[in-house]
Amino acid sequence: MLYAGADPIDVTAVLEHCRRQLADFKVPQYVTVVTEALPRNAGGKLLKGRLREQVRWGSPVH
Fold first, then answer.
1. Phi/psi at 12 (nearest 5 deg)?
2. What gap in Å lies between CA 27 and CA 34, rounded to an integer?
3. Residue 60: is its pLDDT beyond 90?
4. What's the whole-model pTM score?
5. What is the pLDDT of residues 19-50, one digit of tens each?
6. What is d(CA 5, CA 1) in angstroms, rounded to the nearest whole number?
7. In this structure, which of 1, 6, 24, 27 has its CB flanked by the most CB atoms within 10 Å?
8. What is the pLDDT of residue 1?
9. Which InterPro entries match (predicted)?
10. Could you tell me if 33 and 11 are in contact, meaning their C-beta atoms sit under 8 angstroms apart?
11. Which 8-state DSSP code applies to residue 42?
């Protein structure tokens, strides 16, 4: 998620919100907060390969 606010974001609160609003299979296993825009090509599509290189994936959140 892209965040540019001054206050720190509470990842636990984000996941709780997702659990309340989404079906179980749609709740994300990972939440990563970034402060820069996600990498996109000229057509606006997300560059998933470059994103994987930038983000360190930890253990899934349960």
1. -60, -40
2. 19
3. no
4. 0.61
5. 999 999 999 988 888 778 889 999 999 999 98
6. 12
7. 27
8. 60
9. AMP-bd_C_sf (IPR045851)
10. yes
11. T
Contact 26, 20 (CB under 8 A): no
Residue 15's alpha-carbon distances to 28, 42, 48, 54, in angstroms, are 8, 31, 22, 22
Token pair of 51 as six digits = 């994103």
Supply 27's token pair: 């709740």
Helix ranges, the chain (H): 11-21, 48-54
More confident: 52 or 48: 48
CA distance 62 to 49: 25
Identify which of 19, 4, 2, 5 has the alpha carbon closest to the alpha carbon of residue 62. Answer: 19
Neighbours of 58 (CB within 10 A): 8
| DSSP 8-state symbol, 40 | B
